[in-house]
Amino acid sequence: MTNYKTSTVCVQGGYEPKNGEPRVVPIVQSTTFKYESSEQMGNLFDLKESGYFYTRLSNPTNDAVANKICQLEGGVAAILTSSGQAANFYAMMNIASAGDHIISSSAIYGGTYNLIAHTMKQMGIESTFVEPDISPEELEKKFQPNTKLVFGETLSNPSLSVLDIEKFANAAHKHGVPLIVDNTFPTPIFCKPFEWGVDIVTHSTTKYMNGTANSVGGAVVDSGNFDWTKHSDRFPGLTTPDETYHGTVYTESFGKAAYIVKMTTNLMRDLGSIPSPQNAFYLGIGLETLHLRMERHFQNALALAKHLENHPKVSWVSFSGLENDSQHELAEKYLPNGSCGVIAFGVKGGREAAIKFMDSLKLAAIVTHVADSRTCVLHPASTTHRQMNDEELAAAGISQDLVRMSVGIEDIDDIIADVDQALEQ
Ligand SMILES: *Cc1c(COP(=O)(O)O)cnc(C)c1O
């Protein structure tokens, strides 16, 4: 499918049935796969042959959907995980261990912030958070000899700041480490981070990719562009023998697929965050309409943002599609055709007014979720980001009056009418 355009890959990518096979990706709901001889099975375990033997390591349904995402991002290899959290954790853990250091943009999802700042710290991995608008010179100074990667979000959840990908990629590459970017919000419909120098992309497929809020999931995609062997001493897990896999050297045996193969044979084997084939199937169905849905999400969000900009009860609106938005310039470069359906705005009257507004909505539901077909709202300061102190909230770009609205694909007139009546309250 490599020569097809994005919309075609959404519909048909990842799975090409042979003569007489099912037209739709089958749900292979089986833990194990049968073989005639133990020798054959042994070869699979030794990675001498490729094939399915246990669903924790690979499954035909999961692989077909991972392939579709891989093609959409323009990568060389991809893997599905049971959640976006697992995807980000695996993406970093695959190349960092105790005693290492990572640099992350401070404008990231609350769960990822906790993962890096607290859980990975307990595992002995130190981190430095930097403001997304940090100067290239200041960014340079944050690198340490033990820095293993740089992390950011293309379009941050929930603060909606657009990552200056080239700035972060240049700095990372100058110091011989990859840039990992979570591309959950724009999806490959609006941004293909590999084209800007990103090495590894992650996703919470729970959001737009699945699109209907029926299953939690994640994905990691490798561009194949980062040359691990050039920085061999920094990434021994990929470039020296893995004694737990008969001395396999991943970069020698698997070339550009080394990073994802290691993730499968080490992290999936030992930690096991795989999606069920049923959930992978739902994700595959969702991806078939991703291109249509993303366009509508963006159109609706832009219309609502423009409406709120002039509303007397709204103090500010943040949406990169607005021309006077602080992120507009970066968005024009990295997200020229659209960004996502999530907007943020401040309700005049602060925290109390924001909560009153949300409680008065009828069509838009209050849920701990964003980026699905139904319009919904969230007050990050009292929900997803409540573990943060005021300083951390400010660094993540979240104020007490901030309402995050995930604009769905319903009729825009109904969405605007609902917001207007709730603001009246
Ligand atoms: C939701 C989200 C996550 C976490 O994903 P889950 O699927 O909920 O585990 C990570 N990054 C971003 C940008 C998200 O929006």
TrEMBL record:
Matching PANTHER family: HOMOCYSTEINE/CYSTEINE SYNTHASE, O-ACETYLHOMOSERINE SULFHYDRYLASE
Keyword Transferase: yes
Cofactor dependency: pyridoxal 5'-phosphate
EC numbers for this chain: 2.5.1.49
Keywords: Pyridoxal phosphate, Transferase
InterPro entries associated with the record: Cys/Met-Metab_PyrdxlP-dep_enz, OAc-hSer/O-AcSer_sulfhydrylase, PyrdxlP-dep_Trfase, PyrdxlP-dep_Trfase_major, PyrdxlP-dep_Trfase_small
Sites bearing N6-(pyridoxal phosphate)lysine, chain numbering: 207
Cellular component GO terms held in the UniProt record: cytoplasm
GO molecular function: cysteine synthase activity; O-acetylhomoserine aminocarboxypropyltransferase activity; pyridoxal phosphate binding
Name the record gives this protein: O-acetylhomoserine aminocarboxypropyltransferase
Family stated for the protein in its record: Belongs to the trans-sulfuration enzymes family.
Domain of life: Bacteria
Gene Ontology annotations of biological process type: cysteine biosynthetic process from serine; L-homocysteine biosynthetic process; transsulfuration
Record's keyword annotation contains Transferase: yes
